Amino acid sequence: MSKLNTTFSAAALAGAFAAAVSIAASPVLAQDAKEKCYGVSMKGKNDCAAGPGTTCAGTSKVNYQGNAWSYVPAGTCAKMKSPTSPTGFGQLKAFKETKMMKDKGMMKDNMKKDGM
């Protein structure tokens, strides 16, 4: 092997090694980060935790149930609508819906069914 080929091969090997080490050392990409968001899932579409009388995923009884959560991209929960929540948006912790908020959420759901 010529001196030029040996030098080039060593540089390529060093570059490949450096790339492999940097990939292995890098943290999980931020785009993969998820958070639990309460009050945003539709009936039977929650990821887990739907309160007493339920087991886990897919067991929420109503749309926007305050104690049922879904995984959403990190940082988006507080921007997602939730007519049953005190703020009108998803919550990072379970909450108890008020009757007025529940009725409002159910009304919206019925309007969607009727095509309004």
Which descriptors would you attach to this protein?
116 residues; alpha+beta; globular
Structural write-up:
It is a single chain. The chain is α+β, with helices and mostly antiparallel strands and about 120 residues long. The chain has one domain. It has two helices and two strands. The protein has helices spanning about 5-25, 100-115, and strands spanning about 35-40, 70-75. The protein has a two-stranded antiparallel ribbon. The longest helix is centred in the first third of the chain and has 23 residues, at about 5-25. Residues about 5-10 and about 20-30 have low confidence and may be disordered.
Number of helices: 2
Overall average pLDDT: 72
Biggest β-sheet strands, sense, barrel: 2 strands, antiparallel
How much of the polypeptide forms β-strand, as a percent range?
5-15%
Number of strands: 2
Indicate the topology.
Layout: H1 3-25, E1 34-38, E2 69-73, H2 99-113
Antiparallel strand pairs: 1-2
Quick description:
The protein contains 2 helices and 2 strands; from the N terminus they run αββα. It has helices at residues 3-25, 99-113, and strands at residues 34-38, 69-73. Strands 1-2 form a two-stranded antiparallel sheet.
